[in-house]
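Quick one:
INPUT:
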């Protein structure tokens, strides 16, 4: 666990080094959202007295608003990154408090009143800024993305490093064990493609990866399809997947049509088993669906036309499979199928 710095100036997201000043709980602002003090005032794991009190307040306010445990962990990780769980009276420009909320979120007194600042984080600021509970689909986001959706920080990935600590603090406060990240609860949905690879579906996985890399390299260089000479192949995911496997066309009008055909014929795999290298990964986004080729070790080759969402120029890329479900795409994973053409 990272030990939070105490007793000296430090830098937080978007801030120069600042001195530590603690605002009293009764210092201005709305008081109606202050929860009853937690019965247990013992220090939380590796936090000092002030940090522990603020962590307990964040959790108590969240519980009062029926925030699930993941949301409480998001809030703890956010406050750890923004202020080291300290109630700062100044920061970058007009940012103050545990969450370094800026002036439009509320008065100085409200933003430096820990219960009110925590409530703002969960339910939104006084200026109608969205809180965590206002973010569509936040429960299914990675923790750092959920935090960033509220904070809109210049360092959107910074919250991730506090995730393990946040769950540890939450467990210490609530007595609930941290989640076991080694397994997923059975929610009725097929698991995402992660874990150790089964035996490949192709005779030469290295050759498949080399062929995939040739497509990606040609796309990056602005060159035509290295095997078929086309220039717009990256717009069609099903065609690209077929060509990676040595077929000019998929034989289907869309990836969704291809998946439905595989499902009807009984070759689709929806039991949550990990895909072998060479498998076709299917996603059931409407209306066309999406398909990529699994290359092994968590990597897949895919076209990418979501320029605005991904920040990449449309083309062909080799990416982590998590990009499809947890990255900019947010695609619903359906399962995998052998490359039958």
């Amino acid at each position: 666990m990272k030990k939070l710095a105490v007793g000296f100036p430090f830098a937080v997201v978007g801030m120069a080094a600042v001195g530590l000043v603690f605002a009293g709980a009764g210092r201005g602002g709305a008081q109606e959202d202050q929860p009853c003090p937690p019965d247990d005032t013992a220090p939380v794991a590796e936090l000092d007295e002030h940090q522990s009190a603020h962590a307990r307040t964040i959790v108590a306010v969240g519980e009062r608003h029926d925030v699930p445990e993941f949301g409480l962990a998001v809030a703890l990780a956010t406050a750890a990154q923004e202020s080291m769980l300290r109630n700062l009276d100044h920061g970058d420009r007009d940012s103050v408090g545990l969450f370094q909320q800026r002036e439009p979120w509320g008065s100085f007194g409200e933003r430096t009143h820990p219960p009110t600042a925590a409530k703002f984080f969960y339910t939104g600021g006084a200026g109608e800024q969205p809180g965590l509970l206002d973010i569509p689909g936040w429960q299914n986001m990675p923790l750092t993305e959920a935090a960033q959706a509220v904070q809109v920080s210049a360092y959107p990935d910074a919250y991730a490093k506090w995730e393990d600590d946040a769950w540890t603090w939450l467990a210490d406060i609530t007595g609930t064990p941290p989640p076991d990240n080694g397994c997923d609860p059975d929610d009725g949905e097929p698991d995402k493609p992660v874990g150790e690879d089964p035996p490949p579906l192709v005779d030469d996985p290295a050759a498949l990866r080399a062929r995939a890399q040739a497509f990606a390299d040609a796309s990056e260089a602005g060159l035509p399809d290295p095997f078929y000479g086309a220039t717009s192949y990256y717009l069609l995911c099903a065609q690209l997947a077929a060509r990676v496997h040595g077929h000019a066309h998929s034989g289907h009008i869309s990836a969704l049509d291809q998946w439905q055909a595989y499902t009807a014929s009984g070759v689709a795999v929806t039991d949550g088993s990990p895909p072998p290298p060479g498998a076709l990964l299917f996603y059931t986004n409407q209306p066309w669906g999406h398909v990529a080729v699994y290359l092994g070790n968590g990597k897949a080759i895919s076209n990418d036309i979501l320029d605005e969402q991904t920040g990449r120029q449309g083309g062909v890329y080799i990416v982590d499979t998590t990009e499809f479900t947890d990255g900019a795409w947010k695609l619903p994973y359906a399962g995998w199928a052998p490359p039958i053409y």
